[in-house]
Amino acid sequence: MFSRILVGVDGSECARRAFDAAAELARASNASLVVLCVVQPPMLVGQRKETAARFVRILEREAKMILADYAHEADRKDVKAETRLAKGHPAKVILETAHAEEADLVVVGSRGRGGVKGMLLGSVSSAVVQNSKVPVLVVK
After folding, report:
1. pTM for this model (two decimals)
2. pLDDT along the chain (140 residues), means of 10
3. Domains of the chain: which residue ranges?
């Protein structure tokens, strides 16, 4: 069915459900799972570069913790998984990573969290669906 599945995560409950669905599909298909968390550098108007860089480091630390949690969960579910952390616009990075990783399915949550964890918003899942070259599963 599938050989390589990419799932976008951001720490939201919707992303958790997307991960669970992707892990189940990976296990059923004997596919490998790529778990991606995207850090979107903030647009801090009037702030110094040092402030923005510090904020990005905070986001990256949080993303690494999220990915470690998903790696542990994949192992617990007996699913072969790799994690990826990337910076940029989430939809663009998801699409680029799907291509680079040769994913034959992309799984995203329908909505993410705002604020620090807001990586997969409704507009992101919509952009992924509209521009993906492979099937996309959007999980509510």
Report:
1. 0.90
2. 97 96 98 97 71 88 98 98 97 98 97 51 87 97
3. 4-139
